[in-house]
Amino acid sequence: MNVDQALQDILATPKNIVITSHQKPDGDALGSSLALYGFLTFHQHKVDVIFPTDFPDYYNWMPFIDITQIANKTDAQKASFLNADLIFCLDFNSIDRVEEVKEQINQSKAIKVMLDHHLKPQLFCDYNYSSPKSSSTSEMVYDFIIAIDRDYQLTREVAECIYTGILTDTGGFQFSCTSNATHIVASKLLEAGIEPDIIFNNCYNNFSLDRLKLFGFCLDQKLKIIRDSVAYICIGPEEKKKFNIQEGDTEGLVNFPLKIDNIGISVLFKQDEGKIKISFRSKHQIDVSAIAREHFHGGGHRNASGGTSYESMEKTVEKFEKSSMN
Question: 153: how many CB neighbours lie within 10 A of its CB?
Answer without folding.
Answer: 8
